[in-house]
Amino acid sequence: MSTTITTTIPQAVSPLVLNGTPKKKSEGTEEPYRYAHLMPVYSKDKYPPLQPFEHVDAGSRALSHPNPRAFLDSANVVELTPWLGSDVRGCNLAALTPDQKDELALEVARRGVLVFRDQQDFIDRGPGFYTEWGRHFGPLHIHPTSGHPEGHPEIHLVFKDANSRFNTDNLSTTVWHSDFSFELQPPGLTTFFLLSQPKVGGDTLYSSQVKNLQTLSPVMQDFLRTLKATHSGFDSLRSTKGGVVRRDPIETVHPVVRRHPVTGEEALYVNKQFTRRIVGMKREESDLLLNFLYDHIAKSGDHQARIKWEPMSMVLWDNRVTAHSAISDYSQQKARRHGARITPQAERPIPALTSMKMED
């Protein structure tokens, strides 16, 4: 591969903001931004297509542990809803052993999403540590268009500040999705944290695709288990902030209802951002069914959890059993929101209907 050419995001680095307000070093002097080394750059490298691999889920190893939740023994855990989300304090993710990381993967699979507070130890260890962490859970997905820290393309960065444009074309900034569902082997357990954030706003919504399926009638559930849908990466990559598409987009067919490889739970697996069509249906039929499911996901507030960010928080979720959406409601604050995502891939989605055959 030729020497990497990178482009740093074309905007000034504003001062440190952990709660929306720049910290003052002294009167008239602002401290340098603590995470300036993690500002996004846009390499010109081209990546080959992703290759299939055999995935062994980390959570499966924890099933044989005497206490699969032992990593939380000294933590304070508050459940956000009866069946989705937990808020954890008193657990240092950076200090987890391999066995404890396996237990973490199992807990995330069971609860859908976990938020861990006070994780400065992890966040300050830097991008080399982030990638080492992520590889415990699977091969790291490299975003084909987004910015990343210099020399670390496996870390996907989100970045908005006072100079950024916000989407005002739609009534809402809510876009429910499961990350990169168009890949043959989409992400499983995902880690995300903010390095800088607005004083208020910029929350993240999560929805249980397990409950979204379970609340449908048995007749509808049985019907959905027989269906496959096309997921496409073409639309999302047409407009890129860095101006470079580093891997060609693909379309993939997945089951509409998938089974988690460790918990065995069935989950709805369609999302408005990437799902395009039900295989075998006429366009009008497919649109009718998919729009019904999208509406069901969006309106089912009793299956959702809202994560309110605090400085030094980290959120881990299982893309196989949840959908999520960022909320861009902070544009008037002119504040910076700078986050990093570590995205291991998992297995090819397993159909809930055991007799379903997927194309090679």
Automatic annotation (TrEMBL):
Entry-linked Gene3D superfamilies: Clavaminate synthase-like (3.60.130.10)
Gene Ontology molecular-function annotations: 2-oxoglutarate-dependent dioxygenase activity; metal ion binding
SUPFAM superfamilies in the cross-refs: Clavaminate synthase-like
Top-level taxon in the UniProt lineage: Eukaryota
Alphabetically ordered keywords of this record: Dioxygenase, Iron, Metal-binding, Oxidoreductase
Domain TauD/TfdA-like: 79-343
GO cellular component, one term: cytoplasm
InterPro entries per UniProt: AtsK-like, TauD-like_sf, TauD/TfdA-like
Alphabetical list of Pfam families matching this protein: TauD
Family assignment from sequence similarity: Belongs to the TfdA dioxygenase family.
The protein, known as: Alpha-ketoglutarate-dependent sulfonate dioxygenase
